[in-house]
Design a protein that fits this description.
Layout lengths: L1 H25 L9 H28 L5 H25 L3 H24 L30
Helix pairs in contact: 2-3
Amino acid sequence: MAALDIAILVVIALCVVIGVGEPLLRQAPSALPRTADEQATERLMLQKDMVYGAIRDLDFDFQTDKVDQDDYTALRQQLERDAVHILRQLDTVDPFVELEQLIEQQVRVLRQPLVASVSAADDHVCAHCRTPYAPDALYCPSCGPTLRPL
């Protein structure tokens, strides 16, 4: 009986060690070195979270009358300036910002002729597919683009 009890205790101890140690091993940092951009982004994200937390705390303190109106206004404006500065820095580090700006610019260019050609068409015919549409229609029933500026 004693050998069986010892075997059960060993199995239970092994389960505990595996149960406790597995999450610790799973969260081990990766061996890959991080780039300078990744480190800068992580640092800026941490700063952003800290500033947002400070804004939340300040709002709570103001709502509970721990901070007067003048101090609240001054501190809130400073924290907002800090947040804007951090967000602008994040935009410069983000590799997709330039791509997003290029896409937005191209969308604006593509929409501009559409608005001009649609506003000139008074005969209720789509400028793209020449399909007639109802006078109160916002979108072409055939091809789908906006028929007039909203």
